[in-house]
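Holo model, zinc ion. Inputs:
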Amino acid sequence: MTEKLYYSDSHLAVFPARVLSCEAAKGGFAVVLDHTAFFPEGGGQSADTGALGPVRVLDVQERGGEVVHLCDAPLPVGAELEGRLDFEQRLRRMQNHSGEHIVSGLVHRRFGFDNVGFHMGSDCMTLDFSGELSWEELQDLERRANELVRENLPIRAWFPSEEELASLDYRSKKELTQAVRLVQIPGVDLCACCAPHVSRTGEIGAVKILDSQRHRGGVRVSVICGMDALALFSAWQESITEISRLLSAKRGEVAPAVRRVLLEQQQTRERCDALSMALVERLAAGCASTEGHLVLFDSLLDEIAQRELVNRLMEKCGGLAAVFCGSDEAGWRYIIGSRALDLRKLSGVVNEAIRGRGGGKPQMITGRAAASRLEIEAGINGLIV
Ligand SMILES: [Zn+2]
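Output:
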């Protein structure tokens, strides 16, 4: 059975090893060593990656007590080589995972809720708890978690004897069948866990609760720790700096600045609507009443104003009241109404006259026309209905 160096030293990043076996496997070559510092996926923590001599370690899984390294190329059996972890990635995961134990331990001790789901994603962790926590309670937990980071408490991980285990009260997600490994943060948490952890809470650096949402009768909390928290801060800093530059507001004052922009936008929209309606009045007033068709073109009207203009023109003509918005280049959006004619029946003839597509109700049809303004004018005015 492979000796698991990550159990005794979570900070071992480089180690000498001997290749015991190497076999072709799905996606590469399965390599077993006499001992390893590569942590196989487990306990919610992803597998380590890194290098074994000249080859890359892509994935690590535990199978029947053996740690199997999936490598991108074969290695000769018996070879003595150096294993090298992608240690920054491992450290980031340990910071997050140890931070998770602190938060889950605090929640368990203060509220009695269990951690019933744990996912370590690429951007943050999600922790599911069996009861609801308010945002104020979560902020208080975050403050306490960071105090514990500053206290730089030792984190102990060990395999207790059966007698010792029976005497201890520890958190555990499932009934464990293998030898139980415990991870202890004194006064905070005692939890069964197979993953490597930082040595002292100070190494976690920072614990940041990002948000929470109700989830299956409890709460799902997003948390980020350590270097990942710093990286997220940098990404958000970049984003907020850009926003503050665009709004000419200080970084801490972008919210009121955005509110101001939204208010201005609403006022502009209201003014624009009022101007549109004034334009509709003028355009309608400029048309003399007729028993024939009325055709108007405009490039500014939105659909609501266009419809309103058609309504006004319908009062003034016995034939088609047609308003086209757009341009010869972009094409024309049309609304055509009539007091007297059944446009649903006529839509085929109308569309043919203006190279259009569209339809609607007997009183009004809408659509788009591909013909030019001159062609449309001639087409509509040439319709005898
Ligand atoms: Zn754990």
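Residues 43, 97, 101, 193, 195 surround zinc ion (CB under 6 Å). The first helix runs from residue 5 to 8.
Archived with the compound record.
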